[in-house]
Amino acid sequence: MSAEQFRTLKTYLDSQVIGQPEFTKNILIALLADGHLLVEGPPGLAKTRAVNALAKGIEGDFHRVQFTPDLLPADLTGTDIYRPETGEFVFQKGPLFHNLVLADEINRAPAKVQSALLEAMAEQQITVGNKTYPLSSLFLVMATQNPIEQEGTYPLPEAQLDRFLMHLNVDYTGAETELEILKLTRSEALKNKVPVPAPLTQEQIFKAREEVLSMHLDAGLERYLVELIIATRQGQKYDDRLARWLEFGASPRATISLDKCARAHAWLNGRDYVGPDDIQAVVHNTLRHRILLSYEAEAEGITADQVLDLILELVPVP
């Protein structure tokens, strides 16, 4: 499997989501690492458009779910429907049985609905009544949060946040990019569509995932990767500031996620080995939602990204 096909898909995504190259790259990293994305950013930044474009570039179907306070778990998982003509209950599949699912404004739905989604993400299956139904082998959830409006929202607990492979922050672009967006919008209104590349088959995606996992990672770099995680739990070993700022560190699931994302990053860049730059490139997106800051850090205005910057400074590269 050639990474060139994924880079072609990346080029197409960049043509559809102007000025967000890091965002589109991380979508492909999540696809290769078999994980899910939590994306935070103001409305109107093409989050839905990005998943739509990805759905066109791969062999799979896409479904968007608008999360609202009145949403029920069955609205995601599906439910048993009674058929009076046969006197039987028939299971009607819900949106989670699609390959790509956009959970729009996930923090607007209550805890039961969030749990139904996150259980599906973790187990790749859902249970209705006394029956368990497997989900698609290719299953990617991109959940979005709007940081502007906080009224009527149900923030995701830290234990649930840990189920996401990466937490991406998407922000506004510059004036030149806005001009490009205007041109693209006008062009599409005139039916001048950008040609879609030949969709990647699911078999190609699974093959690429195997190649990503089999890439060479030096034992010293593997130790470095683990030390970055340990530094979030035992900050006092490195610096007093870390000890003051960190309440809880990243879980073993974070170690696995960091390893997968670093491998996917290296593979997308055409290498057959993982370097320290690959690990450092994905640290923030992989860990920012997995560390819990102390009240002291919040009082000082310290962010998770600043803590991770300090960890990268303190942990020596082999």
UniProtKB/TrEMBL annotation:
The keyword Nucleotide-binding applies. InterPro entries: ATPase_AAA-3 (IPR011703), CbbQ/NirQ/NorQ/GpvN (IPR050764), ChlI/MoxR_AAA_lid (IPR041628), P-loop_NTPase (IPR027417). Residues 246-309 form the ChlI/MoxR AAA lid domain. It comes from the Bacteria. Keywords: ATP-binding, Nucleotide-binding. SUPFAM superfamilies: P-loop containing nucleoside triphosphate hydrolases (SSF52540). One of its GO terms (molecular function) is ATP binding. Pfam families: AAA_3, AAA_lid_2. Belongs to the MoxR family. PANTHER family: MAGNESIUM-CHELATASE SUBUNIT CHLD, MOXR FAMILY PROTEIN. This is MoxR-like ATPase in aerotolerance operon. It comes from Planctobacterium marinum. The lineage of its organism: Bacteria, Pseudomonadati, Pseudomonadota, Gammaproteobacteria, Alteromonadales.
